[in-house]
Specification:
With 585 residues, the chain is of the alpha+beta class. Helix content is 45%, strand content 13%.
Length: 585
C-alpha cells in the first residue's frame, strides 16, 4: 500500500512541469562545478555553479538532475555517466591512493567510450577528446582545486549541460532498460510483468539515517535468501516502480512544506491529487512557518491557517471553514525511523482531507481555553505543548519524542498519550505556572481521554466535581494572602502547598482556611470571605482525603479559571469582582 501510493505520487509529479521530479534512470545530485569545453574538447573555463546557503553566505552545491546508478556507490569503483568527482573525471584527488585514482579515471573513460560510441554528435565527440587526456593540473583547475577536490563536476558546451542533451539522456535510458533482462517477474507494486530491481535507489533525508541513504526494502544477509532469490528478488518490485516510489519519497523529504522531523522519526505528507492541505497539514499542528514550495504547492500563510482554525472552532464544517479545500481528496502521512542501513515505518495514516481537518479541528477545540494574557498562543503547536509538559528541565530529544506521539494521536483522531496528564501535573506540583497552554492540555486530556462533558472553556461556578471547586478555593486563598501581605512575598501558599492541596486536600485545606481568616481580617477583604464560603457550600465543607489524576486535572483547571480573565491579570480585587458577578449570573 505505501509503495503503491508513493509510486502513484511519482506519476503525478512526472506529469507536472517544474516539480524537480527526476525521470527513471536520473536523480538529483549535488553539483559544485561545471567544466566548460569547446567543440574540440578543450577546457575553456571552470564554472562555479554553487549557490548561497539558505542561512549565511556560505556557498552550497546546486541540485541537478543527472544520470543515476540507482543505488548508493560502495567502496568499489563505479563511474557515473556525464558527471562525477575529480578522481573519475580528471584522474586526480587528494586521497593519496594513486592506483585507485587511476582505476577510477579508466573506468569513467571506458563507460563513456562504450556509450558515446553509439551517438555521433559534436558534444559526444568533444567529451571523449577531453576524457582521453584530461588536463588535471590546468591553471583554471588549480585556481579552484581546494573547493573542487571533494566536489561533483558536470560538463558544459556552449550554453548546454551535457546531461541535459536529449540524445545523451536517451543513451543512458536505453542502457537501463536493457540491463537485468534475466530478472523479469511480476511487480508487487504494479502487478505488471517487468524487469525486477535487485537493488532499490537510496532514500536520503531521513533524520538519523546514513548520509549515503537507506532503504525501506533491502535484503543483505544470507539468512534473508528464500528459494534461491537474493537481494530484492525476495520481494519483487519492478525497476520502474522502485525508481518511482524512491524518487517520490526523496522529493517529499527534500520539500520542507511536506516533511517534518518528529523525535527519531521523519514524517512526510502527500495527496492523491493537488490540494493545499498536503503542504499545510503538518504546519497546522507543528506551527512551522512554511517557505515557498514548488509550483505545484499551495502553501497557506500562518494567518490563513489561523483563520481556518477559528472557523473550525466556531463549529463550521470543513467545507465551510476552508472553501478552497476539496474535502474528498485522499491524504497520506508516512513516518520513517532509521534502523541501521534500513528505514522502519513508524506509522502510516490515510484518510480524506475532511477527516484529517476534522481531527485537527477537534484537537484545537478540546485545547481551547480562556487565556490569561493576550500574548499567550491561541493555537499552541505540539512543540509548545511538549515544552509546557516537560517543564523546566526539558531536553530537546524529549520534546521531539513527545511531539512525535502527540502528532500521531492528533492526526489519527485517537486518545492522547496517557502519560501527558501525570507529567503535566508533576510540572504544576514542582512550581511551574498553570499557564493557558498547560490548562488547555489538561482540558483536552479530560475531554478526549476521560470523556469529560462539563463546560471547561472558562470559569464554571456550578461545576459538580468537588475537585474543580477545591481548585477555585485554592486560587481564592492565594489571592487573599497576596492582598494581605503584598505581591513581594518570597513564597506564598501556591509555592508551599499546591502539590499537597491538589493531591491530599483533607490534610491541607483546614490549615489554609484558618490562616485565610487572618488574611481577610488584615486586608479587610470581606468579599473574599463571602466567595470562599460560597465555594465551601458547593463541596459541602467536606475535603476528600485523596484526589486521583483526573481530579487533580480538574483541580488545576478550577485554580486556573478562578484566576483567569482580561480584568484579572494582576488585580485580585478585579478577580474577586468578576468572580462574584459570574456567580450571580
Amino acid at each position: 500500500m505505501i509503495l503503491q501510493e508513493l509510486n502513484r505520487y511519482y506519476q503525478r509529479l512526472s506529469e507536472q512541469e517544474d516539480t524537480g521530479a527526476a525521470s527513471e534512470g536520473f536523480a538529483p545530485q549535488s553539483i559544485s562545478f561545471a567544466l566548460q569545453l569547446d567543440e574540440q574538447g578543450r577546457l575553456l573555463d571552470v564554472r562555479d555553479v554553487r549557490v548561497p546557503a539558505a542561512k549565511g553566505k556560505k556557498l552550497v552545491p546546486f541540485k541537478m538532475i543527472v544520470p543515476s546508478l540507482g543505488k548508493a556507490r560502495t567502496s568499489g569503483v563505479e563511474p557515473n555517466f556525464l558527471w562525477d568527482g575529480p578522481a573519475y573525471v580528471l584522474g586526480r584527488d587528494d586521497k593519496g591512493k594513486p592506483e585507485r585514482t587511476a582505476m577510477c579515471r579508466n573506468a569513467f573513460l571506458s563507460l563513456h567510450e562504450e556509450l558515446l560510441a553509439l551517438v555521433n554528435t559534436p558534444e559526444a565527440i568533444a567529451l571523449l577528446r577531453f576524457l582521453r587526456n584530461p588536463p588535471a593540473h590546468d591553471p583554471r583547475i588549480e585556481e579552484k582545486w581546494e573547493d573542487m577536490a571533494n566536489a561533483n563536476l558536470v560538463f558544459r558546451i556552449g550554453k548546454s549541460y551535457l546531461h541535459e542533451i536529449p540524445a545523451l539522456r536517451e543513451i543512458w535510458s536505453a542502457r537501463g532498460q536493457n540491463a537485468d533482462a534475466d530478472t523479469a517477474g511480476v511487480c508487487l507494486v504494479t502487478g505488471e510483468h517487468t524487469a525486477i530491481a535487485k537493488l532499490h535507489p537510496s532514500i536520503k533525508g531521513v533524520y538519523g539515517a546514513q548520509s549515503s541513504g537507506a532503504a525501506i526494502s533491502a535484503y543483505n544477509q544470507d539468512s534473508f535468501v528464500s528459494y534461491g532469490k537474493e537481494q530484492n528478488l525476495n520481494a519483487p518490485v519492478g525497476k520502474a516502480a522502485a525508481f518511482g516510489y524512491t524518487t517520490a519519497l526523496n522529493h517529499l523529504l527534500a520539500t520542507p512544506e511536506q516533511s517534518l522531523r518528529l523525535g527519531a522519526a521523519t514524517v512526510v505528507c502527500w495527496a492523491e491529487s493537488a490540494t493545499p492541505l498536503e503542504s499545510n497539514l503538518l504546519a497546522f499542528i507543528s506551527g512551522q512557518q512554511n517557505g515557498t514550495a514548488g509550483p505545484e504547492a499551495d502553501t497557506a500563510s500562518a494567518r490563513e491557517r489561523t483563520a481556518v482554525l477559528r472557523r473550525l472552532g466556531q463549529g463550521l464544517p470543513v467545507p465551510r471553514a476552508w472553501p478552497e479545500l476539496d474535502p474528498g481528496v485522499r491524504i497520506f502521512i508516512l513516518a520513517l525511523k532509521p534502523n541501521a542501513s534500513r528505514l522502519a515505518i513508524s506509522f502510516f495514516l490515510q484518510g480524506t482531507a475532511e477527516e484529517f481537518m476534522e481531527h485537527v479541528g477537534s484537537w484545537y477545540q478540546a485545547l481551547a481555553i480562556d487565556r490569561r494574557f493576550d500574548d499567550e498562543p491561541e493555537f499552541p503547536s505540539v512543540w509548545q505543548i511538549a515544552r509546557a509538559v516537560l517543564g523546566k528541565h526539558r531536553k530537546a530529544e524529549d520534546i521531539q519524542r513527545l511531539g512525535d506521539e502527540l502528532i500521531k494521536s492528533i492526526l489519527a483522531g485517537t486518545t492522547y498519550p496517557a502519560y501527558l496528564l501525570p507529567m503535566c501535573l508533576q510540572c504544576l506540583r514542582s512550581g511551574d505556572a498553570v499557564s493557558s497552554v498547560r490548562a488547555g492540555l489538561l482540558k483536552a486530556m479530560l475531554i478526549k481521554n476521560y470523556a469529560h462533558e462539563e463546560e471547561l472553556m472558562s470559569l464554571n461556578p456550578n461545576h459538580p466535581n468537588p475537585a474543580y471547586q477545591l481548585g477555585r478555593l485554592f486560587a481564592l486563598l492565594v489571592g487573599v494572602q497576596r492582598k494581605a501581605i503584598g505581591p513581594n512575598i518570597n513564597a506564598d501558599i501556591r509555592d508551599k502547598y499546591y502539590g499537597s492541596a491538589s493531591a491530599t486536600p483533607a490534610m491541607v485545606f483546614p490549615l489554609l482556611l484558618r490562616n485565610a481568616q487572618n488574611h481577610i481580617s488584615k486586608a479587610k477583604a470581606w468579599g473574599y470571605d463571602k466567595l470562599i464560603r460560597d465555594v465551601l457550600e458547593r463541596i459541602d465543607n467536606e475535603f476528600p482525603a485523596n484526589l486521583n489524576l483526573q481530579d487533580q486535572g480538574l483541580f488545576a483547571l478550577g485554580y486556573y479559571h478562578q484566576r483567569v480573565g482580561k480584568d484579572m491579570k494582576s488585580d485580585d480585587d478585579a478577580m474577586l469582582e468578576n468572580s462574584l458577578a459570574t456567580q450571580q449570573q
